[in-house]
Amino acid sequence: MTINLTKGQQVSLTKTGGGELGVVRMGLGWKSAPRKGFLARLTARDIDLDASAVLFAGAEPLDVVFFQHLTSNDGSVQHTGDNRVGGAGEGGDDESIVVDLSRVPVHVDQIVFTVNSFTGQTFEEVEAAFCRLVDESTGQELARYTLTGGGRHTAQIMAKVQRAGAGWQMKAIGAAADGRTFQDLMPSVAQHL
Predict the structure, then answer these.
(1) Which residues contact 133 (CB under 8 A, 6 or more apart)?
(2) Which range has the worst mean pLDDT, 3-12, 53-62, 115-124?
(3) Which of 75, 102, 124, 177 is in Cβ range 3.0-4.6 Å of 155 for a Cys bridge?
(4) How far apart are CA 144 and CA 104, in angstroms?
């Protein structure tokens, strides 16, 4: 059963019936909001949202996975590729980042997921955007965080997975930010470590 997360809510990443999850996928989906008026429809551009995952040891960023660096240096985190137009909306994922939790080095204690509008449109122009966590071994959706409310920002600090004892937990952050790349978001990310 999927848990619909609200901003700031946390969920433990354990399997139903016990045991830790091995591989999870953070999926991102979106589509362009319908444009009103003839001229607005003619000038509409595709929206290129980009998912990124920043690996931290404490407050120190160690590695990042994004469309130009698809696999973490240790191989535990992998981006499945860049989607420049979206379109999944409420359906499947437009971009995904797969995390093998069992392979994440012990000194990495949190992984922060961000999304930014590389083409610079604000979230007022995005519809049906979501972030979801899936157990890769079963395909079961574990948690979903819906980006609601639009807004004049061009990015969001979506969520993070962090070590909790011997396991992991996910926290929905949902903080608005501005920037076209994950580098632009690093000051905002630091506030959520």
Answers:
(1) 13, 24, 25, 26, 27, 141, 142, 143, 144, 159, 170
(2) 3-12
(3) 177
(4) 22
